[in-house]
Amino acid sequence: MLGxxxxxxxxxxxxxxxxxxxxDTILSGEILFAIKLSLVTATxxxxxxxxIAVPAAYALSRFDFPGKHIVDSLLDLPIFISPVAIxxxxxxxxxxxxxxxxEKVFPFxxxxxxxxxxxxxxxxxxxVRLMKSTFDGIDTRYENVSRTLGLSKTKSFFKVTxxxxxxxxxxxxxxxxxRAIGEFGATVTLAGATPMKTETLPVAIQxxxxxxxxxxxxxxxxxxxxxxxxxLVALRTISFKxxxx
Amino acid sequence: xxxxxNLNSSVKNFLLSNIDLSVKKGEYFxxxxxxxxxxxxxxxxxxxxxxxxxxxxxxDGADITHxxxxxxxxxxxxxxxxxxxxxxxxxxxxxxxxSSKTASDSGSRLSEIIKTLRxxxxxxxxxxxxxGGEKQRVALARxxxxxxxxxxxxxxxxxxxxxxxxxxxxxxxxxxxxxxxxIIHITHDLEEAFTLSDSMAVVMDGRIVxxxxxxxxxxxxxxKAVASFFGIHNIFNGIITDLSIDADAxxxxxxxxxxVASYRDNAAVGDMVDVCIRPQxxxxxxxxxxxxxxxxxxLYTGIVHSSIPHGNTFTFYFKPYDTACADDSxxxxxxxxxxxxxxxxxxxxxxxxxxxxKKAVWILNGN
Lengths: 245, 367
Fold this sequence. Notes:
By secondary structure, chain A is mostly helical. Chain A contains 13 helices and no strands.
């Protein structure tokens, strides 16, 4: 039933305009800019998120430290709170003295960097969650054996844990990136919706609807769907590899 | 030589208490105990994966209690072998050699290990395609490659079929004989422990309850719990009625049975004791045959109550006529080879006479 429902949505989107209109819209300067901006910002945000998520998730998975449960709960906040609220919280932070000082050196508000920061804030917690479940699923005995064979904790992490986490790490990166590319609420609140400046694909959809240009909105949605489809195929391939190595 | 002195440790609500253990260089030492008794936790302390709350672990005289696992040179083969799935057999075996601490003088030793463990034809194989026995040999080779001071084996045969296990026990003895590495092997399997060990210790509830040469531990369990764990059901509670140092005898009355055991110097007349008798130690007297002098002290006639065939052996339950107790706990459990069972024509309901050497009546120390 649900599958049929989603299929209905896709069919009505694909048949809303003809191919010519879709191609002309997608190949327009504004939409190409939005595609490029979305790909670059989502990639940068995901790289930063994964770089922080891997050690943080490993620490949460393997070590006990004071306040671990508080840190663990804090990481769930961006998942549970509305992205608009997160964007507003970042905006409020940049109105504080510390935030204003940061903003003077490296501006975020209504800038492209703001898109990256908004996306990073939303997806980093998700990346930590995904990586933690990957590390939780790796038997600590592999690391124990590695240590008895003469490798330090750090070397064991790089030579044993990371290779074992490879598929989980790639899957987490793909999901993180896909979530970042679709991020709207926090992005529009922090970086605004300036055409040809902070116009990511979701922002382009919102701008198109604001000007009642439904054909343009449908074309952008189609682009987002194709990108999501590619991410989904990549994920399925990784999952298949895990089952049939 | 590895020595553990008064080790106490608390890990996840489990306690290891007052562990004292000594394993000689080149010895095959088995730690035996039921599941959940703390055997794995104990060898994980030896491997350095846990630090004790108190006590000392020393290796060849050097205190290694706080030495990290990577600096101990203790080979560890966990249950299920834990081979690295992203490396082939050769790279699994060589894994520990990448560490600079163990890299020197490794080439010839590695060749010797590969030859001894008959791994020459498996080196390029993916570890995921190996059989249980092959995985075990690869895990052993990987641990031995670092030339460890001691090799720790955590139930290495538990996941293998029974028939295959017997072959690997023989193989393991051969490997130990050839490489002369000190081995500490944990298991809950009595037969495996007896086949492989030079010495053994029994662990129960986080404590070592008995240790020593394997014959001493196996044939003379110290407590009722150890005897029960060894599968001995012939445990009888009684009172010492006489002691004679000259006759080397302790007379114990167990609710109808009177047993003659060897003289016990730390016992006194009137002491309540538990005695245990291994079912294999009970001799069935062939009708009409003369009885040897050393078997006449414990002689019982009665009826075969029931019997269970096990293939090569038979277990039967025997009830002497002259017991005052009627409950089932006073049956003797007897184990005989199937050939002897058939030759003596033992059947349920048949009257037979059994006998015991007084050394087979073993007085236990406590619970």
